[in-house]
Each structure stands twice: as C-alpha cells, then as structure tokens.
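Re: weekly structure request thread

Next one in the queue (134 aa):
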Amino acid sequence: MRSARRRPSPTVSRPAVQAFVCCLVWVVACLVFVVPASSAGVIYKYEDEQGITHYTDRRDLIPEKFRSKAQVVDSAKAPVTVVPTPPPLPPAPGEKPPPSPSWLDQFTQFASSGPGLTIAGVLLLVLVWRFFRN
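Done, posted below.
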C-alpha cells in the first residue's frame, strides 16, 4: 500500500491576515454607514386646491389629480415638519381587505433599511473576527 503524501500547506503570515481583516473591516464599515445615508428617499412637493403645500416621500400618497404637478424637492431644502400618515381606510362592505405583507416582504424591507444594514454589518464583522482570531 502506498502512503498518501501530504503537500505542505501554504502558510500565510499573521501580519498579512491582520492587514486583510483590517481592510475588510474598513470596506464593511463604509458599506454599512455610507449606503443608508446615500439612499435617502425622494421628497415630493405639491399644492392642493386650497393652496396648501404638502410634502411627502411617497408618491402613492399624492392624490391622483396632483401627481402630474408634483415636484421633486432637494431633501436639504425641504422643511422638517413631520405629518403622520393617515391610517388606511377600512374596506367597503363586501370587499376583501388588502393582503398583509408576507414575512419575507417584511424581512426584505427591514434588511434594506438603515438598521437592517447596520445589524448585517455588525454580524459580518463578528463572523470575520471569529474566523480569524486565534
């Protein structure tokens, strides 16, 4: 029987691994903290029949007759007044209520939000740290 000969495994120096981990941490930190800031939503401005100016970040909340006149506003120049979104109207009698979003839709929405990206970044950093520690 022939003995299986093992090839010597290539060794990577400790400083090289530390440099790699350091670079990886910087890349993840940039992705986690820069991407949510740069993905700020669009703000729309429109004026209703009474001459009241409204601001919203959701185009679907603009009444149909004002959507063509809605303007995109630079978010730095938009006012900071917060108006709560009205609750959805109950369905008409005999009409089916709209389906609630599935858990996958809710997870996807959370994962693409700022807190979701931050949590994902922290988990990735912990995994990298656990992998490369002694």
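The helical segments are 14-38, 64-67, 103-111, 114-132. The longest strand covers residues 43-47.
Next request, please.
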